[in-house]
Amino acid sequence: MGDKGELKGANFSFAVEDTRKYGKAIGHIGKLAAGSLKVGDAVQADVDEARRARIRLNHSATHRCALRCARFWGTHVSQKGSLLNDKVLRFDFSHNEAMEPEEIRAVEDLVNVQIRRNLPIETNIMDLEAAKAKGAMALFGEK
Description:
Layout: E1 5-9, E2 12-22, E3 25-35, E4 44-47, H1 49-73, E5 78-84, E6 89-94, H2 101-117, H3 128-133
Helix pairs in contact: 1-2
């Protein structure tokens, strides 16, 4: 999910509806709301931080859901995809049998509990073996 927000300058306002990475560059997709923009203009970027925070929560919950699902049903569970944005989180996974409605509800409750825990995000850069030693699980077909 790309950011939304506004680019502003002395003579223009640009409404950003999405951002995309193009190599090392970030492209801003949207509409010029007012004025005109030219090469060399100073630009201030205002990101919709509340939206970004909601996306971040759902992204973190996707990882926690993967771990919880694997622990709930076993290591045969693997992620097959996901969709997340600032409004929803969907976690697609394989399982060896159809889920009953109460099981689906239990998983939804698990995910919502994880989202609401609002745990701090910590990043550790390490090799694969060190990560596995700390309990990392490869649920997405990583090598």
